[in-house]
Specification:
about 600 residues; alpha/beta; Rossmann fold; seven-stranded parallel β-sheet; 19 helices
């Protein structure tokens, strides 16, 4: 029995009262732990207590994860060096479940999916053979254009499902999962949406739709797993343990003998490792990429900054029916301020942190919160130059240059603030909101998208910088609506020959993976090795016992990078180190190194 809040995630033995019967693994119960009564999960038969009297279970809390999911949580805790209860929580229902509804009738899923897919397949004769090839391989990646619908691939896969089997569909966001569920139900396909439809999903015979935690959701007789937008970072948990729902769903499908299909506009190197790539028809895939217009910042007058003449021209032409969405992943007014007279960076006198412009007059320290007037402490000049302006400042400047209102959007902006706006400036949240609004209203509002500083993404000190930059361009192309809509994606960069730019121009995302693969191999980076990041005050001491072939490399900020030839060697080594000290965080497969 594993308590929800036990010391170190340890399992304990308890006696089972006769009134309970024999609870199967995954059952949720209440148990005495010290002087408290806490919730927990039954893991299986325990020992005899070693001669000690076992305390009995205190109560029953209803159904929990199925036995095969309980076994999967043990593997996941090993794979991502985390506590098992984190995965058991994700696999459990949000509310008490005592009984399950009737399962859906055998064969309902493939019959309804075949009816819905009939008109689509008739207009796309090439889809059938490509989909059959993908499903035969058991692990496949379908590459489609950003604006191309994944619906035909999903319907075709569900139509091939054996009668009586269930299917699991994963979507990066909760809102996206709800939309897919509504679409399936409207097509007459029995479906359950997690987490609210946990009981219906556990009953079986349905298409189970969920976001990241859905990888551990109930899905008896699993026959198919489909992951939509498999390259999206939303599938990765940011809190420790930092597990990846795509990799977890792939392992679950392999254990169940089910087919696994990932649909992505720009598959990553890790996603393609060990999987069969099935690309959409070339003309159709290319049509899903919006026309790309490149502004070479090397040929632009530096005084124009990021608001080049082309951006201002598009802002003046934009309308509410065809808006311009400008994207810059840098919030605030300015990240770096320098004195225009002496070129000295403007820093806080108390803590040395670079100061930023306050929403009111003056400067503010983001570190200690101190405020002072906008005066250079070195020479007393009052004119400051902005080296890295944020979206707040750019929105003000663009409104002045274009002579029309400009709406600023960040993750903290209230929903709907940008509705009916002709010009929007913000972070990547602009694109996420545009996708969500189009799906909710049942219609697309295509418009031009301007990526004001792609170099920030291309030159980021990150392992997956190129792949993440291509994913940003792909999302922009989806919002623009593909080639048939007539809208464009404007990219401003000093690297017009970069493989990401060339891939987006040609609609060939394979150019990025073709360049990334040899680079990863040469540098011994995943998937050609396994990495873990260990941070915290005791990170160095905790990793001391690791021996070759494990490599431990100190990094900036006291972080330790642990590298092994493969995942199994790395995870076994981390497991051998024992319990994590307080304050130490382990991130297997780190997104940033």
């Amino acid at each position: 029995m594993l308590p929800e809040r036990g010391p170190g995630g340890k399992a304990f033995d308890y006696a089972v009262p006769e009134s309970f019967g024999l609870p199967e693994p995954g059952r949720r119960v209440r148990v005495p732990l010290g002087r408290r009564s806490v919730g927990g999960w039954v893991l299986g038969p325990g020992g005899d207590g070693g001669g000690h009297r076992l305390r009995p279970l205190a109560g029953d809390r209803g159904l929990g994860p199925a036995p095969e999911v309980v076994a999967l949580t043990a593997w996941a805790a090993w794979r991502w060096a985390g506590r098992r209860e984190a995965f058991l929580v994700a696999a459990s229902p949000p509310r008490l479940v005592r009984s399950l509804p009737e399962p859906a009738r055998a064969g309902d899923i493939p019959r309804a999916a075949a009816r819905a897919a009939g008109p689509i397949v008739a207009g796309r004769p090439e889809l059938g053979p490509r989909l059959a090839e993908a499903l035969r391989s058991r692990a496949a990646v379908a590459r489609v254009g950003p604006a191309s619908p994944a619906w035909p691939w999903l319907l075709g896969a569900l139509a091939s499902l054996a009668p009586g089997r269930s299917a699991l569909v994963l979507v990066p966001s909760l809102a996206g999962a709800a939309r897919v569920h509504r679409t399936l139900v409207a097509a007459g396909i029995p479906a359950a949406h997690l987490p609210d439809g946990w009981a219906a999903a556990a009953a079986g015979g349905r298409v189970v739709v969920g976001s990241r935690a859905g990888a551990l959701g109930p899905c008896p007789d699993l026959g198919l797993v489909v992951v939509l937008d498999a390259h999206d970072e939303g599938f990765v948990e940011t809190r420790a343990p930092t597990w990846d729902a795509v990799a977890l769903s792939r392992a679950r499908a392999a254990r169940a003998g089910a087919a696994w299909l990932a649909v992505s506009a720009c598959p990553t190197v890790e996603l393609l490792a060990g999987a069969t790539l099935v690309a959409e028809e070339r003309a159709r895939e290319r049509g899903g990429w919006a026309p790309l217009e490149v502004v070479d910042l090397r040929e632009v007058d530096p005084r124009q900054g990021l608001l080049t003449r082309r951006v201002v021209e598009l802002a003046r032409q934009a309308t509410s029916d065809r808006p311009l969405r400008c994207v810059l992943n840098r919030t605030g007014r300015a990240r770096v301020l320098c004195c225009a007279a002496c070129r000295e960076p403007v820093r806080c006198e108390a803590c040395g942190t670079p100061l930023e412009e306050d929403t009111c007059a003056g400067l503010r320290c983001p570190g200690c919160g101190a405020r002072r007037p906008g005066v250079c402490a070195a020479c007393g000049a009052t004119k400051l130059s902005r080296r890295r302006p944020g979206v707040a400042r750019l929105a003000e400047e663009l409104a002045t240059l274009a002579g029309r209102p400009v709406v600023e959007v960040t993750a903290s902006t209230p929903p709907g603030a940008e509705r009916n706006a002709a010009v929007v400036v913000g972070t990547e949240a602009v694109l996420h909101r545009a996708e969500a609004a189009d799906a909710e209203e049942g219609r697309r509002t295509p418009g031009d998208v301007a990526l004001l500083d792609l170099d920030t993404e291309l030159l980021g000190a990150r392992l997956r910088a190129a792949e993440e930059a291509l994913a940003l361009v792909a999302r922009a192309a989806r919002v623009a609506g593909g080639r048939e809509r007539g809208c464009r994606v404007l990219v401003q960069t000093s690297l017009p020959g970069h493989e990401v730019v060339r891939a987006a121009q040609r609609g060939e995302p394979g150019l990025v993976t073709a360049s990334e693969e040899p680079r990863r191999s040469l540098l011994r980076l995943p998937p050609h090795s396994a990495l873990a990041s260990v941070t915290g005050p005791l990170a160095a001491a905790w990793t001391v016992p690791l021996q070759p072939p494990i490599e431990v490399v100190p990094a900036a900020g006291g972080r330790m990078l642990v590298r092994a030839p493969d995942v199994e060697t790395l995870c076994n080594a981390l497991e051998g180190l024992g319990q994590l000290p307080v304050g130490v965080r382990v991130e297997v497969d780190p997104r940033r190194i």
